[in-house]
Specification:
InterPro entries: Uncharacterised_YqxA (IPR020534). It is built from 3 helices and 3 strands. It is α+β, with helices and mostly antiparallel strands and 121 residues long.
């Protein structure tokens, strides 16, 4: 349990470092290019129940909560994506699913070992 807390703390520190590094790099790039104060790569602005997200200059607006989804439209888009995917994309998706399931199983086994060790003490 102690090492799990240490690993979690280490991962949180590393993620913070990554985000801080990306932000610092973006600020320095803007300084070098001479366009300080320009919009960021990703800029999120919440306003009165709406969220405006700007990604690389393209603005996307959302409303909260999301309006009722159109089930037929979702099925239609899913079918079109499945038909347009090539063999390589399908193989990549299957490999990704296999890796994800294998990783989950490995974690379950490791946690099972640790749990049994805790009970034996």
């Amino acid at each position: 349990m102690k090492w799990a807390a240490q690993v979690t703390a280490l991962l949180m520190v590393l993620m913070f470092g990554v985000f801080l590094g990306i932000d610092t790099a973006e600020q320095n790039i803007q300084k070098i290019q001479g366009n300080e104060g320009a919009p960021r790569a990703v800029h999120i602005t919440p306003e009165n129940g709406r969220v405006e997200i700007s990604v690389m200059g393209h603005v996307v607006e959302t409303q909260n909560p999301v309006s009722k989804e159109n089930v037929q439209r979702v099925k239609q888009v899913r079918r079109s994506v499945e038909q347009n995917n090539g063999l390589l994309a399908k193989m990549g998706n299957e490999m990704g699913n296999g890796i994800r399931q294998g990783t989950r199983k490995a974690i379950e086994v490791i946690v099972g070992w640790l749990d049994s060790d805790e009970k034996n003490r």
